[in-house]
Amino acid sequence: MIEIKDIEKSFGDSKVLKGISTIFETGKTNLIIGQSGSGKTVLLKSLLGIHTPDKGTISFDGRIYSNLTPDEKRALRTEIGMVFQGSALFDSMTVEDNVGFPLKMFTTKTAAEIKERVDFVIDRVDLKKAHHKKPSELSGGMQKRVAIARAIVNNPKYLFCDEPNSGLDPKTAIIIDNLIHEITVEYNITTVVNTHDMNSVMEIGEKIIFLKQGILAWEGTKKDIFKTDNEAITDFVYSSNLFKKIRKAQNKEE
Prior knowledge:
Number of helices: 9
Shape: globular
Largest sheet: 6 strands, mixed
Number of strands: 10
């Protein structure tokens, strides 16, 4: 579980996060949504320790990040997996070298132990025949699978995904969404996904927070969206063609 309390963050005279408090639950896919400039990326980077909040606290299973020693912060970072928007794979490395990189960098596992773990996670994301391929030989969806395999290879407690469906066709995006959700439940990970994809909201939105101009304007589940009278979230989601179709179908049923 990740708990944030009264987080504020400014850059110069611009206040980007304005007192955000919420809980990201373990074993669930927690989504951050909002328009460009709403503070989504700054919040995600604050969770990752890239930005330091001006006020408030971020706690990882009771451990307040700002209170940790440098060694404790380094130890916490080994519990975090990250899927970047552009996959961020090493072009010169094979799939298995990309996936094994965190183990070689941050653990003392033997070569045999690393190979066993790498084989396992590559198999888990259904890339059995891609071990020796380079990223340039893979489709966008396959590259995302490699990025997910690398993110979970070190058995993280926390998984962060920044726009994981960026650049993918709708069918492949659904496959990636489902894979993220399956892994979250299977390994009981606290997963936080930064996304603008409304299909993701409907596929895996177990906990959703909606940011508007740096404020947490709404939170709930994908089912709650259809029940809320909060204009901030309804104006945002029903601007999506997907939600327009869903609402039209619901109106017909009624």
